[in-house]
Design a protein that fits this description.
Length: 374
């Protein structure tokens, strides 16, 4: 199948390598053709889609003025995969964080944000050490080895999580508590030469999930994000570069189907991963064809539904390593329109959310690339 977002649109994973190349670090491809910089920050605004920004220009005049082109985030369009792209410079098929939740052979389905069992919530940090699940050198480790002062400026509550260790090892972690110290700490980090920092803001995504993207609370938060970016642009040291990106967009789900209340979707299925808009379906041995047929019959044209090999061949996950391939569902489902596949008992919180993401639609795949210089 032809992907809804063209492959020639630059991938989120190209941003940090391009920035590090602009800082003079060897071994990084500057595929975005960024001009030389003395210090740089990549600020990721969780959930800020390209289409959502275009729909609300008056709430984000600074971002709107500076956003010249989109990026694509790859499949699935979700935070774990996006942080993996930032942290390795690669797509999910190589870094291996192939969903909000996915099966790790021999252990079960891992919730990558909580690093817990998706079945019973049990802590999996011991059974699945983060740097074994994602063993590739991080962009932060490589930058530090190249002599660049490297920092992560993000919420203090994420400082020692397993996902942080999997994707941000090698950087000095600066824990912050609000927009004010996020801005102040980013600008402080940029005073070193050469310096690279990655900043992260999560609350726009949270409000989009709870109230819906484009809702009044979401728009008010977008205004605060725009002020954050304005403060950073105004405070950039001479020669410094700011790149603002996101990990996915978001849609409001309408007309969801409960997987666990649909018996035809459960025959031959041993585990289910992913999230409402992007599902990994793991089948019993020998049942792959029957599971594929059943999901296609029940869901019809409300989603793209492919067996693993076809999804890989179609480029959904980018290049896929042998280490990562078994984590991908035997059947992979990507919702179209505003459709969703919930599990109201097994995933009560996730299923209750208004805004969702993960799939291949432009609303979820495209995010802005905002560039500013001091």
């Amino acid at each position: 199948m032809e992907l809804p977002v063209a492959a020639h649109v630059p991938h989120l994973g190209q941003v940090v390598p391009s920035v590090l190349s602009a800082l003079g670090a060897e071994g990084f491809a500057n595929s975005l053709s960024l001009a030389e910089a003395s210090s740089a920050c990549v600020l990721l605004i969780d959930g800020l889609g390209w289409e959502l920004l275009a729909e609300h220009p008056t709430d984000a005049p600074v971002l709107t003025q500076l956003a010249k082109s989109p990026l694509r985030v790859g499949f699935p369009a979700t935070t774990a995969a996006g942080l993996g792209a930032i942290g390795t410079g690669l797509a999910s098929g190589e870094h291996g964080l192939v969903g909000y939740s996915f099966e790790v052979p021999g252990t079960g389905v891992l919730n990558a944000l909580r690093w817990s069992s998706h079945v019973d919530g049990g802590d999996l940090r011991g059974a699945l050490p983060p740097r074994e699940v994602q063993p590739l050198p991080t962009t932060f480790e490589r930058a530090a080895a190249a002599g660049i002062t490297t920092s992560v400026v993000s919420s203090a509550k994420f400082a020692d999580t397993a996902l942080t260790r999997a994707t941000q090892s090698g950087a000095r972690y600066v824990g912050v508590h609000a927009l004010g110290d996020l801005a102040a700490c980013v600008l402080h980090c940029l005073e070193a030469r050469p310096a690279f920092c990655w900043g992260y803001h999560s609350e726009l995504d949270m409000l989009g999930h709870i109230y819906g993207p484009g809702s009044a609370p979401w728009r008010m938060q977008l205004r605060q994000v725009d002020r954050l970016v304005e403060s950073l642009v105004d405070g950039l040291p001479p020669g410094a570069l700011l790149a603002v990106v996101a990990d996915h967009g978001m849609v409001t789900v309408e007309g969801a189907l409960d997987i666990d209340e649909t018996p035809a979707l459960l025959g031959g299925v041993r585990a289910i991963g992913g999230e409402v808009r992007a599902r990994h379906v793991y089948s019993e041995a020998g049942a792959e064809a029957d599971v594929l047929a059943a999901w296609r019959e029940v869901i019809g044209d409300r989603a793209w539904i492919l067996p693993r090999d076809e999804a890989v061949e179609a480029g959904w996950f980018g290049p896929v390593s042998d280490r990562v391939r078994p984590r991908i569902g035997d059947v992979v489902v990507a919702a179209k329109g505003r459709f969703g596949l919930v599990r109201e008992l097994a995933e009560a919180v996730e299923s209750s959310l208004v805004g969702q993401h993960g799939s291949l639609t432009p609303a979820e795949q495209l995010v802005p690339l905002v560039l500013a210089r001091g």
